[in-house]
Each structure stands twice: as structure tokens, then as C-alpha cells.
Amino acid sequence: MTMTTIADFEVTDIHGNPVSLSTYLGKVVLVVNVASRCGFTPQYAALQSLYTTYADQGLVILGFPCNQFGSQEPGSHEEILQFCQLNYGVTFPMFAKIDVNGAQADPFFNWLKQSAPGVLGSKAIKWNFTKFLIGRNGSVIRRYAPSVAPDKLQVDIQRELAQPHDKANN
């Protein structure tokens, strides 16, 4: 049986283009469900800082806007992108607004939740800015609660970046 990895999924970017997540195989990936009107929204600055610091070493951050928590992401894709760029200088890839829970949840997020359950084995994402770290081999390493500041992930990110680049060494 073949193990599912990030490479098995296709998503839509914030401009409406399909993106095969196999593009990111061999990189360390931090996936975050984001929102523009959340108490955790200032984490965009720290996420951008991580991206700026580690992108050349192989880190990529993928932002997935979600309006399921307190309707804190009501804007259009254009409004979301403009907000992120103007207020936080976001340059990491942003994707189309999605559902992360429920019947309409994106298959990629269903896989993330299954691969790295939350507290007490909970599969549901509890709030905006839940984070998932994926290793170079495309497998989920760890899930982080929304309250975990992005700079607290540096040790885990550095450890994953130190892993061999060879995708065949899974």
C-alpha cells in the first residue's frame, strides 16, 4: 500500500489556478489556515519572517484562507491577498478560500487532520492559524495549535531543513 503524501493533492491558488502539491515535495512545508479578522492575524508577520529567513534553505509556507471560524475571512480572494500584502508584506504562496472542517472540507485538510490529530485525538481544526509541518518526504510531522506563535516552530523547522534533500530517502 502506498503512503499518502502532500504530492497526492491538488489545490487552487488564490488566483484560481490549479496547483499540484507535488511541487513542494523535497521542501519543508508549513501549512496554515488563515483569516484576516482574527485575534491571531498578526501571526502573518511572524510567518512572513520565517519564510524570509528559511525559504532559501527549503521552507515554504502555504496559507489557506478559511471563513469557518467566526466568519473572520469574509473577503474575496483579491481582498484577502491585498490585505496580506499591504499589512504584513506576505510573499509566501496563498491559496483559494476553503473549508477545513465539515462535509465540504478540502481533501488536503482532511488528510492533514487524519495524519496529525489535535489534543486528545481530535481531528477537527478548532480555530484559525492551526499549523501543520510537513517534512521533505511529504509526510506530516506535527500539528500546532493556533496559540503557538510561528517563531516557536523554528527549532522544528531547522531540524527538518537539516534532513537530506534526496526525495528517494523516505
Q: What's the arrangement of secondary structure elements?
A:
Elements: E1 10-12, E2 18-20, E3 28-34, H1 43-54, E4 59-65, H2 77-88, H3 107-115, E5 131-134, E6 140-144, H4 154-161
Parallel strand pairs: 3-4
Antiparallel strand pairs: 1-2, 3-5, 5-6
What is the CATH topology descriptor? Glutaredoxin
Radius of gyration: 15 Å
SSE-based structural type: alpha+beta
| Share of β-strand residues | 15-25%
Task: Just name the CATH architecture.
Answer: 3-Layer(aba) Sandwich
The count of β-strands is: 6
**Which blocks of ≥5 consecutive residues have pLDDT under 50?**
none
At the fourth level of CATH, the homologous superfamily is Glutaredoxin
Number of contiguous helices: 4
Q: What's the shape? A: globular
Note the quaternary state here: single chain
Strand order of the largest sheet: 4-3-5-6
Structurally, the number of domains stands at 1
Q: How would a crystallographer describe the biggest sheet?
A: 4 strands, mixed
